[in-house]
TrEMBL record:
Protein name per UniProt: DUF4376 domain-containing protein
Organism, scientific name: Rhizobium freirei PRF 81
Domain of life: Bacteria
Record-annotated DUF4376 domain positions: 107-206
Amino acid sequence: MYRIDSMYEPMVEALLAARSENKADRWMACVAFWLGRQQMYNVADFWLSLAAKITSGLDAADKDAILDQLNSKEAALVASAADWPETPASLLAIVAGWSPEPPPVDLYAYAATKRYAVETGGIVLGGMRVMTDRSSQSLITGADNYVQANPDALVKFKTAAGFVELSAAQTTAIANAVGEHVQASFAAESEVNARIAAGTITKANEIDAFAWPSNSAAAPAA
């Protein structure tokens, strides 16, 4: 983490990031010369060599604007600039300590969490919001088993909006729709896992963007 009283750290990190992207802008040269003059992190030679290399590649106007502000030693470095200097290991170690890499995301676990949220998120059937949490799934299965044995029975069924009375056929239709939704959710997770294994899904946001079932029994297209 950056210290709140230090402006050096974000400057250094921005400069090194721009260098890694093969950028060479006037601001980079100015920052590198300034860091070299301040002998930041005991790698003054690196900063000055980097600044000289960046300056040597600028267009004439930017290059002249910087040269006008340099001392003779710095100007000589620009004139003799050749290869890009290698970043000292000591500096890389310091920078790594400021912004440590976040722990990698377990994509399979993330996909399972996403599937559970989709699976238990409910569906809309015939304008009726049907809950699909694990408890509701069990109750719906139980109600369907009951009407299979008692086809003339009416079932009191609690939806998100309140109680409704359902026939055996309606109860079975709900049970089938919920079962299909649950299976579609697991089918989606299976496909996501296959893509993770194949390397075509590599980030959590790609899992979120997958075609998860939202309100139907149909499994997402592969």
